Each structure stands twice: as structure tokens, then as C-alpha cells.
Amino acid sequence: MEEEMSRLAVERALVSVYDKAGLVSFATRLVEAGVEIVSSGGTAEALRDAGLAVTPVEEVTGAPEMLGGRVKTLHPAIHGGILADLGDEHHRQDLDRHGIRPFQLVVVNLYPFEETVSRDDATEAEIVEKIDIGGPTMVRAAAKNHAWVGVVTDPSQYEEVAAAVAEGGLELELRRRLAAAAFFRTARYDAAITAWLHPGTLPQRMVLPLERVDSLRYGENPHQPGASYRQVGAVAWWADARLLQGKEMSFNNHLDAEAAWRLACRFESPAVVIVKHTNPCGVAVAADPATAFARAWDCDPLSAFGGVVGINRPLDAATAEAITANFVEVVVAPVVDEVAASILSTKPNLRVLAAEPPGDDGLDLRRIEGGFVAQVRDAPGGEEWETVSKRGPTDTEMEDLRFAWTVAAATKSNAIVVAKDGAAIGVGAGDQSRVGAAQRAVARAGDRAHGAVAASDAFFPFADGLETLAEAGVTAVVEPGGARRDDEVIAAADRLGVALVFTGRRHFLH
């Protein structure tokens, strides 16, 4: 019995598919291997039209299709043949008593619910009709009984299965893999139905089907295994990006690349973002990427060493020369031209990704023990900027304030960003106090802070943060406002001649 289970010869197959791609050639190979095909509806018709012998399901069940096709395979003669444990004497006796022959292969793909529900013009009645019942039931039955049945749920599996059948049967390892894929298929199918029945930004119930995209070099540290997963059906720039050169991506590389690429793509002008440990340590806009890279690197060269770079314009030769003159781990750009690619190839360990811009839809999920916290993804925009100081910012200051505000929203809180002429010159990130973040930012900016502006991702609880910036030479500040001591902060701005703008919205990033 163990020998029979390890390699399962296929004599009889139940075939019922919505997607007919590759069906005829696959079924032809089964028939050539001596397999009897049992089928129904459109699948049977397609096979007969191709000249293949088909046993109708109604001939097996003795019952016609009914309810417009909703009921055709839901019958003991079908499910008994799928679910029978042939290692159980009682099961074999039941089959004999009821004249049921077992299936060794079930080939099913489901009604296209996901595609239907994604259509703007789909009616509720049409969507409901695309909720498959018989298909998932057969799939789950066959997957449960994978000791005696192989289950095929996708045309991509046809080649491997047809070859195995022709060579004498399905090995247990293959049947287990097919069963795992089958249960995942029904799980993601039910997840799509759940999402439709529980709409909303933060639904009452949420099921996330994830599929592994790649194994990572390692996790946050070399002793931690890691992998990347994409939500089924979701657009993911990183999963579709092309790795043009360099080593495989690690866990940290992915997180830093996401941070750099997302911030770079928030700017309309040519922009370069350099990230270290998910925090910007250099950001600049300029007339061309090479100039932007040089200015971004100058923000904090010590931190930029070994950083991850996002460039929102095609990567050209001049920018490639600037990058290779420094130590960089990852570069993400929309396109890399041939000359630039040749220059970058002199650094074979440098990972170079060509990617589409990231989207802003979907939820931001963070793992906590036993679950997640979820939120709508944050991005700057929608604020109501109001000058609250006696002196308003100049046009140049206001342009730099908007630039600094964009960078601050992508910097771990507490965050202070000092900027001048479209470039960050000092970033204080992830500090436990706001005045500490201000001190870090001006320390990195040094003398460059004279005449610069600053952005704070949340309000100043005391005047000391603004005073620290003003003492370093900062002339204009943007912050959300809303603190109990706002009057003290505004008074300090007026006393120090600093233009102060409130936005009414903070941008914490934890």
C-alpha cells in the first residue's frame, strides 16, 4: 500500500475548468496516457470539439445539471470518487456498494470572481454568480485526499502533471505540492469574496493572501532567514522591479529601498534621496540627477556611506560616475541607460534596480504579536498652511519649507529637517525628544544652517526646539502647531525674527 501511495498511476480524471487556456493539449496528453476524462458543461464541449472522448458528469451521477449550472458536480458519485481513502477497507466497500469509481486526478480552475469584482461595470448579481461553489468543493476534497488524488488548479501546472502521468504516475511529493497550491487557491479566492462583502478602508474582517516572491540573502542580521511576500493581486513596485546587477536583496535592503524610492517619487523635479536605516540622510532636487546626487551626498557624507539611493529620473552616465565614486549599497531608478549601466558594472556588488513608481493605495500594516495594527498610508498634502508669526516667509523660504516638510514626513519621528536651496543639509531623525532632534539637525548642518529653513514633523512642545534652530541661523520654520505652549513658540519666533508657519497636520513616522 505504501508503494502505491508513493507513486499514483492515473486512470481516471475529473476535468472542469473555466479558463480553457492549454486545456486541449493537456487533456490530449492525458488521453494518450490512457486516462479516462470525466467532464461537464463547457469543458466537456471544448474537449469533444477537439475530438477527445469524454464521459459526461451526468452519466456518472445519473442526475442532470440544474439551477442554471449551479448544481452539477455536487453528488456522491463525484465526491465519493474524490474523497475515498483507498487504504481504508470500509471506504473501498462503500465504493463497491454504490458502484463508484475513484478519481486519481482532479483538474479544476475557478470562476473568475477576482476579475469580475474588479470591473467597474459589474453588477451585484453578476458578481454573486461568479462565486464558485462546486469548483472549490472539488478542489478542497482532492487536496484533502492528496494521498490518493492529484489536484490541478492552474494551467501553469499542466506540463509537470502531464509529464508525470506519462511517466507512470504522480509522486507523493508532487501531490503534496499540488494540494498546498490548491488550498492556497481556495484561501485567496475566499479572501477576495470576504473583501467584497466587507468593504471599506478599515474593514471589520480582513484576510490577506500572501505569496512568496523571493528568498532574501538574510533578514535584519545574517543569522536570520528572510523572504519577501506580495499580497496576491496587489501591485508592488519592488516585486516587479528588475535587478540589473548586484547581489540578492536582503531584508534591510528592501526596507531602505522602499523608503528611498517612495520619497524620491514624491518630488516633481529631478530628485535624489539617500537613505540609511530607512531614514533620509540626504535629499536634494536640482536641474539634473547628477547635481541632485552631489547635493544630497553633501548633506551628511558620513551617514550616506553605504546608503540606499532613490533617483526619480533616468540614471545617466554623469550620475553613475558620481555614484561609483562613493560606496552605495542599492540604487533604484526608473531607467538606467546603457552607458550608465556599463559604469555601474564596475561595482559588481552594487544592487541596481529599475522600477515603476510606488503607489499610495492600500493599508500600512505593522506586525505586533498575534496580529497587526493597520492605518491608511500617510503622505504630505491637504494641510492648511498658516503664517502665525509677525514676519511671513519669503517666496524662497516658502519653497524650501515645502521641500523640508516633504522630507520630514518621510523621516522617523521625532524628526527635524533643515534645508536650503532645495537640499537637506541636516536631518535629526528618530530622537526621543524634539529639541534633541533639532540639536542633531543643526549639528549636521553646521554653518550651512545660516539662512536655512526647518521642518518639524510634529509640534514643538516648548520653545527650546525653535530657539535651537534660530540660534544656528535658521530663518523660517514649518510645524503642525497645536501645542499647549504654541503662544510661547510663536513669541520666541517673533523675538528671534523667525518666520513660523503652522500646517494643522502632523506626520509622525514610527
Domains, number: 3
Q: What share of residues is helical? A: 25-40%
Assembly state of the chains shown: single chain
Shape, principal axes of CA atoms: elongated
Question: β content, as a range?
Answer: 15-25%
Total DSSP E strands? 23
What are the segments in which pLDDT stays under 50 over at least 5 consecutive residues? none
The rounded distance between the terminal residues' Cα atoms is 57 Å
Output the CATH homologous superfamily of the largest domain: Methylglyoxal synthase-like domain
Based on helices, strands and strand pairing, what is the structural class?
alpha/beta
Total of DSSP H or I helical runs spanning 4+ residues: 21
Major β-sheet annotation: 6 strands, mixed
Descriptive account of the structure:
α17 links the parallel β14 (328-333) and β15 (351-354). Helices cover 39% and strands 20% of the residues. It has 3 domains: 8-197, Rossmann fold (3-Layer(aba) Sandwich); 235-354, Cytidine Deaminase, domain 2 (3-Layer(aba) Sandwich); 386-502, AICAR transformylase, duplication domain (Cytidine Deaminase, domain 2), CATH 3.40.140.20. By secondary structure, the chain is an alpha/beta fold. The two termini are 57 Å apart. The protein has 21 helices and 23 strands. The strands form 6 sheets. The protein has a 6-stranded mixed beta sheet with strand order 10-15-14-13-11-12, with helices on both faces. Strands 18-23-22-21-19-20 form a 6-stranded mixed beta sheet, with helices on both faces. It has a 5-stranded parallel beta sheet with strand order 4-3-2-5-6, sandwiched between helices.
